[in-house]
Every structure is written in C-alpha cells, then in structure tokens.
Amino acid sequence: MTDETIDPDLCAPRAAARRHGGRAARTAERAAPLAENLRPVRPGMPGGRYNPLSEEGVQRIHRAALDALEQVGFGKAPPSAVEILTGAGAVQGEDGRIRFPRALVEDMLARAARGIVLHGRDPKYDLHLEGTRVHYGTAGAAVHVVDVETGDYRDSTSRDLHEAARLAQGLDNVHFFQRPMVCRDIPDNLEMDLNTLYACCAGTTKHVGTSFTEPAHVAQALEMLHLIAGGEDRWRERPFVSNSNCFVVPPMTFAEESCRTMEACVRGGMPVLLLSAGQAGATSPASIAATIVQATAECLAGLVYVNAMVPGFPAVFGTWPFVSDLRTGAMSGGSGEQALLTAGCAQMHRFYGLPGGAAAGMADSKLPDMQAGWEQAISNTMAGLSGLNMVYEAVGMHASLLGFCPESLVLGDDMLGQVLRCVRGIEVTEDAVSVDVIRQTCLGGPGHYLGSDQTLRLMQTDYVYPAVADRMSPKEWNEKGRPGLVERATARKRRLLEEWRPVIDPATDRAVRERFRIYF
Amino acid sequence: MTDETIDPDLCAPRAAARRHGGRAARTAERAAPLAENLRPVRPGMPGGRYNPLSEEGVQRIHRAALDALEQVGFGKAPPSAVEILTGAGAVQGEDGRIRFPRALVEDMLARAARGIVLHGRDPKYDLHLEGTRVHYGTAGAAVHVVDVETGDYRDSTSRDLHEAARLAQGLDNVHFFQRPMVCRDIPDNLEMDLNTLYACCAGTTKHVGTSFTEPAHVAQALEMLHLIAGGEDRWRERPFVSNSNCFVVPPMTFAEESCRTMEACVRGGMPVLLLSAGQAGATSPASIAATIVQATAECLAGLVYVNAMVPGFPAVFGTWPFVSDLRTGAMSGGSGEQALLTAGCAQMHRFYGLPGGAAAGMADSKLPDMQAGWEQAISNTMAGLSGLNMVYEAVGMHASLLGFCPESLVLGDDMLGQVLRCVRGIEVTEDAVSVDVIRQTCLGGPGHYLGSDQTLRLMQTDYVYPAVADRMSPKEWNEKGRPGLVERATARKRRLLEEWRPVIDPATDRAVRERFRIYF
Questions:
Q1: Which residues pair with B357 in a beta bridge?
Q2: A40, A61, A121, A352: which has the highest count of C-beta atoms within 10 A?
C-alpha cells in the first residue's frame, strides 16, 4: 500500500502528525493566557492588500461624486443646514437644493479630521482610526431577537440589548459595540433612546455607538454620559460614545431631524458616524460603481456639514450602501454584491485618507446556519482585507438586519478571529523564510517540524484557535456525542454572561437610575 | 415618528422598496434562463485584486525556494527520476539527494507550459488556465460520506462518488470534478482506481481529476479513457482527465511510486497536477511564509521533472500546503492560516506565470453548519481574489477532508456563486458611474431607482441569485413553515439527480462494463 492509498491528495501529513506525542501538553500550553503583545490578532491591524478598485476607478468615482454634489446637490435641507452650508460656500438653487462647488468639498477634505480616536471607556479599547487599521463591531437596528432553540423571531428588548453588550465585553474580536437592536419594550422614544444608551454603556467599556430618534433627546443623553464619565469635562476629553447618524435619506436628500440631531451631537462633543445608507437598485443606482459614487457624494456632503460647524470634528465617513435583491426590492445584506460595495467604499476612504466605516457581516439567513456563515464571512473578509477602519454590523445580524442572534454573536467572534488572522497576513521576513529550518529538518534532522523551535514559538503567536468552532476528528466528535455548534455557542454565551462583571460603579448606577427610568 | 424610529441605521430604503410593485413580474423575468454571455458569473473570470504578498516578499520566497532546491534538494528519488533529473542537469550528492542548480530551475521555468487548457469532455467546460483566471471545483480523498439527516460518517462508496459527479454536472459554479472521496466498497486497488475514474467520467462532462494507487494502474486507466474518447488519438487531442499526483512526500522527499505514476501519465498524455501537500508545523515549517517556500521549492522540482521528460507538458503547479492545529498536530483546513497559505501560493503562481492550483474551501466542521459556512467562504474568497487558477476542494469537504457531504456540495454552489461575483469585481466604466442616472432620479425624477432602465438591465447581468440560500423576510419565512437550509439543499440534490441524464452513450458504457468490472 503506497502513501496514495491512504490519502492520495494528502500524502503523508496525517501519518507524520500521528508520529509525535505531547498533544495534551501542547493543548495545555496554548490554553494559558497570552500576554497582550503576543496575541496573534488584535484590534487595528492594518489591512489593505485587497484593492477592489483600480487607481483609475477610484479617480473616476471621486470625480463623479464631485459632479453629483455640484450638479445634483441635496434636497430638503433644514434651515440650520442651509445656514451652515451656504455660510461655508455651498449654493442654494431656485429648486431649493443645496449644491457643493468642488473647491468647497476640497477645502473641507483638507480640513477634516484624520487619525481620530474613538475612545473606549476603558482606554485599552480605544480605536485608532488611521490608515488601513481594521476594527470589527456590532451595529444595526434589528427589531427581533432570534431564539435559536425555537427559531422564533421575538421582539427585542432593552434587556436583550444589555445582554448583547455584556457578551461583547467578553469577546476579544468584537472591538466596539454599536447598538445592534431596538428596545421594543419601551414605548416612549425618549426613554427608548436613554435606555439604549445605558444598556450599552452598562454592559461594556468598549466604544459604544447609538442613535437618537429626535434631536431633543441628545441633551438628556449627554446628561447621562456626563454622569457616567464623572463630569462634562471628562466626557469631552474621552467621548466613549459616537452617534450613528443617518443625516441623508438617499438619494441626495437631507434627513431633517437627523441633521439637527447631528448638530446637537457635534455641539455636545460626541463623534458622529456620517451614515449614508442607500440601497442599490432602490434608493441608489443598481450599478455597484454608481452606488459607491452616490454614497461617496452623500458622505462628502456630511463631511462639509460637520467641518463647516467645527473644523476637524471627529467624524467617521460612513458609506453604508446596501444591496437589493432586484427581483423583490428586499434588502440582501448577505450577497456578494454587498461585499463588493463595502470593500469598494473602503478603498475610497483610503483614497481620502479619512476614517471610514461601512457595513459587512450581515446574513440574509434567518438562523446561524451554513448560509449565515458564508454570508457573514465573505463580506467581513473583504472588508478587512480592503482595510476598512470600522466594520459595522459584522456579527450577530440575520434576516438582512431584522434579527439579532446572541449565539451568532458568540460564533461570530470565532469567525472574526479567523478573518483577523487573514487581515494580519503573511510576514515574509528573512527570518521567516530562512532555509535553515528546512535544512536542519531534512539534512540529518527528524524529517518533520513538529517539535522544532520555530513551531513551538509560532504556535502561540502566529496561530489563532477558535473558542467554539470544532476541529475534532469524526471519531472524537462521535465519542463526545456529536456536540452541535449552536449548543456550544449557547454554552459559551452562558459562561460569558456568568463571568461578566458590572462596568458601572454602584454609585453611578444608582445616580443614573434615580435620574432616568431604566427598564432593565 | 421620524425615519430613525423605524430603522435608524437603514433610514428609508425599506420603505422605498415597498413603494414599488411588480415583484412577481421581476421574479419571473429573472427566473428565465440567461444567455451564456449575459450570465453574471462564469468560469475563468480574472481575479488578482488581492495581493497577500508584497513584491519584495515574492522575490524573497522565490530566492529561498531556489536556495532550498540547490542546498537541500530531494531525497529518495527512484532510479527513473535520478536518470531523468541528472540527465537534465540536476546533481546527485553523496548523501543520495538530488540537488537542483538555479540555472536548471530557471531553464525549466522558461520551458514550462503556460496558458494550458484542461479539457472538459464537453468543450464548453474547457478550463483555460492563464493569467489570474479562476476556476472552482472539488477534490480530496474523503473516506466518509456525511449523512446530514443522522450525522453519521459512513464509508464512502463508488456509488457516492458517481452521485457526486452527477451533482457536479448540474452545478454551474463547480467548474471541474476532481474525485473528492475514496471508493471504500472496492477492496482491490486496481478496481478501485478504475471505478473511481469511471464514476467521475460517467457522471460529468466537466474536466475530471483522479489519482492512482500504483503506476501499473495507469495503463488500464488509459485504455478506459481511450474507449470513452473513441480512440487514443481523440483522447490525446483533448485529454479530459488529469492526474492528481503527490510526487513529493514533504519535506523535500520524492514519493517513489507516485513519481513513476507521473511518468506513466506523462507518457500517456494525461496532464498532471504536481501536488505538494505539506502540513505547516508537521511536514513543512510552522511559518506560513516558509511553508510557501517549501511548497514552491517542491513544485519547482516537479516542474523540472516533467519538463525534463516532455518540454512544455501540461502541468498544474500544485502548491497545496495545509495547516496543522499545532496543539494537536491535526489538520485544520478551515483555518485563517490555511486561507493565507493558499492565497500566498496563488501569488507565487502569478509570479511564475504558471497555471496553478491549491486547496481552499475545506471545513473542519463535521456538518454543513455555520462554522462550515465561514470556513469554506474565507479561504474560497481569498483564493479567488488572489487569482488562483484552480481552486481544489472548494466545496463539500468536512472534518478536514475526512468527510464529503453531498448537501454541502449543493450549498457550496450557492456560496461559490457569491464568491465568483466578488471575483468579477466592480466595473468602473464611465457609463457605470455616469451621474446622469443620479441626476434623472433626483431632479424631477421618481426619487428612487426601482424601475429605472439601468436597474432592469443590471438585475440580470450584474446580480447573482442563490438557488437554495434563503432571502425571505422573517414573516414570509414563518408563513412558509420556517424551511431549513439543509432540507432545501436535500431537495435540490434530489432534483439535480432526477434531472441528470447519462453522459456516456449506451454502447460505450456497455463496452466499458464488459472490459472492466464496474461496481455502481
């Protein structure tokens, strides 16, 4: 029997692997916690080895975006926006639309903040948005929570949101927590906004993103944030919450209320995510390239707006175009077209040198199944490789953003670990490719690399091991009773919730609960 | 209630989508078969927008591979290899190892075939391996078939293999069929090899890959292929089967039997996949870069070997390094490290301008679950974006290649459709980014793009729609009884098998069965 009979495409590796013992020892060694600087993946690793657009394509999109701003402009600007924008040099036409001369856009691009920090309440979670540094996190406005045991899509609540924040706190590869679902247990919009904010902040010390239903709600939100931070000064020094702001209703129309919300946030020192969420084929063009044009134009308008108010104010360039299934008009966040849109936008961010964010990782599938796995992985991989600074909606989102699934969030952390390993890439140092290792193994050496110094050194620093995902052999899997993936995720979820410790001190928590009605 | 109350991160797209009717009409229009030239994705689209290695990194790996060939060389060359290789200019040292001077390697690189065709029995399935053209297909040597209903891993049989070939025939995004599993129902190795070959060829007219347990088996295999082709001349004119050949036992050792098998295939006009299947940390270095060095060196040795026999003989540069879970030594085909290895190898193929193949899409998970989805998607996406000509093992493989799952193959076709859409990329023509579409929509137009000419045109040519994957809303999904993904895959599998028609004419089939004992 030759090597080919056993495993023709694999030749001998399995046999070689079996030759060597010490498995238990190695497993134990790897289970010990790694020093922060030795961890194989971490937030903010540089991506950018994938360039979905040619340089000419980037220029073409840039020019078309400037054309759109100059020629088509924006409708429905609220009076405050008219004042701010025309004050900066934009022109309101007889049709009421605000048009942006290219010189104005270029000036504001020169003035815009670069290399911004989105703070965590704990500084170790600070996100440094510069170059092609990649961060993954949650986001969305799901109205349902997915129950993996029953398959039910039930209304999401403030308790669910708080639980998700607590989970995010314990998941290494989830770098920030923008609220992924709506608190539908709270009928009053002001109370909903305040509970959304507190559910996030009381669950995690990572950077939090949220949004507001009305401009008037910002004041009380800031009041809460000052309480949590220990004063307005401390809040303004390290604002740990950003405002996800849909200032535009695509195509090319201001969302009046959101614009005023944005103004309130800027005044309150809260960084803004300038979010343009068109849907290709519905509210933006069906052509992927043209949708990137429109999203870019829309976010450039937001950039002018913010920088006309406060030059250099921290803002994330939030080109979030989505995809329609053109047969039905329904959203398809899990599609390949979506992955391209997001990656293409990331390259535009790099072109401008601006901190950027976009959406990836959304599944159309209703459950954390194989479809969800590939849908989430394709767009997250391409987002990371293209060097997107902020990958929003990266984990937990199902049914094209209508459902949030906690088990999927937990599984997503494993998926992101792998994706981050890919973002980190291949280090081709002279040491890494040294022929010495090969020589020593082949010429008079053991003929395999299992116990070599390089192997033992790299097994911790260069290899990512999943927490839930399963690498057992079929034999071992059988012997362990064929554990299901989702059940293992549920178990990790429970462990994470048990291990979680409050992140707001009791006095502050009391003060918040005295001042505001907290539902959870 | 503002737009933000409904769906803060999405703003208005859902509402806009709902405004417009005609869903049934659009669904029907899209359901009509598309002309071949209008299909949004097809085999052989160029990838290569992702470059995992820097130019310097590529050069470094190339130089290190040449060093390894010159300094370390290959052990255990069979007499025929010694004769062929030393005849060409390689040197056998006193330690018995064959070393390759760099000038020899460079000469053979200049002589090697480029732009080769791997033929389908039906010419429409011909694979043109040149540049960064990407093709996905099956491969492997699974010893189990995964039963998705019971979770059983049972022995794979010739019938299973034939069924998989029939499925591949109907799956548009599976471009070739290398045998993914071993016929364990056949105790005799010669009969196993012949049945493996016939199970594939009798199931699909796409290009077939196979391997042989002994060199002596090649003669009868060729006899069968001549029968199928209608004569030796016709076989040699369009050889529709390639030999997946593990000529090397990593590290840097010839597999004697496989070498002689390769020689027999070359003489018989059967293209070879020169397959180096090291396992990082076990049979090749733990450093990803160094494993690419070793795989490159090993395949270069194979390249010298083949071209020393027949200059310009069609061969695929098969750097297939795998990944070990270094805690256990077990293979982890589903890891991020694997995706990097494969993509890095693809870039080396581009550097040499050689037709190349590597492995992606393997799941460690035992079942077609969410883990399998992300594992398969990450490596397949990166393989395609890096412009890998032949992506082997792309679909259906579980438990690190130990199990083949037919339902997973069917689901994988949907996954590959999305991945191929990403490989196709973003066309940024002046027409695609024209501001006219935006202008006409915003200035006096309908304010949305749902019925625009561009949308209706692109919905067929630019958007990929899955066959099994589900994009229903939660409401619709509920109303339809929450159909499960795997059940839907089983249903498509059954339909495909019912729709399949024999691809060997009855007279030839009779002739084959008279000459050889066929088990299925």
A1: B390
A2: A61
Burial A109-118 (b: 16+ CB within 10 A, else e): beebbeebbb
**Coil, helix or strand at residue A133:** strand
Evaluate if residue A8 carries a pLDDT over 80: no
Across residues A358-382, what is the average pLDDT? Answer: 98
User: Looking at beta carbons, which residues of chain B come within 8 Å of A68?
Assistant: 435, 438-439
Contact in structure between B323 and B332 (CB atoms under 8 Å): yes
Report yes or no: A324 and A364 within 8 Å, Cβ to Cβ.
no
**Mean per-residue pLDDT, B398-424:** 98
Helix (H, G, I), strand (E, B) or coil at A298: helix
CA dihedral A346, A352, A353, A357 (to 10 degrees): -30
Are A296 and A62 in contact by the 8 Å Cβ rule? The answer is: yes
Q: How many CB pairs under 8 A join A and B?
A: 603
Spatial separation of the C-alpha atoms in residues A338 and A353, rounded to whole Å? 22
Mean of all residue pLDDT scores within chain A? 93
Q: Is the pLDDT of residue B22 over 80?
A: no
Task: Select from B85, B61, B66 the least CA-distant residue to B75.
Answer: B85
- Of the candidates A217, A279, A280, the one whose C-alpha atom is nearest the C-alpha of residue A243 is A217
Q: Which residue in the set B139, B286, B418 is minimally distant from A449, CB to CB?
A: B286
Kindly compute the dihedral angle of the four CA atoms of residues A68, A70, A72, A75, in this order, to the nearest 10 degrees.
120
What residue of A is the nearest CA neighbor of B51? A49
- Mutate which of A4, A6, A9 to test chain B, going by most B C-beta atoms within 10 A? A9
Confidence at residue A329, expressed as pLDDT on a 0 to 100 scale: 84
CA-closest candidate to residue A47, choices A465, A342, A432, A409: A342
> pLDDT band at B273, cuts 50/70/90?
very high
Which segment of A14-28, A70-84, A270-284 scores lowest on mean pLDDT? Answer: A14-28
Q: What confidence score (pLDDT) does residue B34 get? A: 67
Q: How far is B505 from chain A (nearest CA, A)?
A: 30
Q: Give A30's contacts in chain B (Cβ within 8 Å).
A: 326-327
CA distance A483 to chain B (A): 10
d(CA A128, CA A135): 9
Q: Does the pLDDT at position B193 exceed 90? A: yes
Q: How far is the first Cα of chain A from the last one, in angstroms, to the nearest whole number?
A: 66
What would the two tokens of residue A188 be? 């009053």
Higher-confidence residue of B5 and A508: namely A508
Give chain A positions within 8 Å (CB) of B329.
Answer: 17-18, 20, 23, 450
Band of residue B6 on the pLDDT scale cut at 50, 70, 90: very low
pLDDT recorded at residue B473: 95
Q: Domain residue spans in chain B?
A: 109-425+504-515
pLDDT at residue B1 tops 90: no
The mean pLDDT of B289-315, rounded to a whole number, is 98
Is residue B15's pLDDT more than 80?
no
Q: Virtual CA dihedral for B55, B59, B60, B61, nearest 10 degrees?
A: 100
Whole-angstrom distance, CA of residue B363 vs CA of residue A415? 13
Torsion from C-alpha of A223, A224, A230, A231, nearest 10 degrees: -10
Which residues, 6+ apart, have CB-to-CB distance to B160 below 8 Å?
B145, B181, B404, B406
- Note the pLDDT of residue B328: 86
Closest CA relative to residue A11, chosen from B188, B441, B148, B321 = B321
Q: Determine the Cα–Cα distance for residues B469 and B413; give it in Å rounded to an integer.
A: 10
Structure tokens at A6: 């056993």
* CATH class of the domain defined by B109-425+504-515: alpha beta
Q: In angstroms, what is the C-alpha Rg of chain A?
A: 25
Residue A201 in this model has a pLDDT that exceeds 90: yes
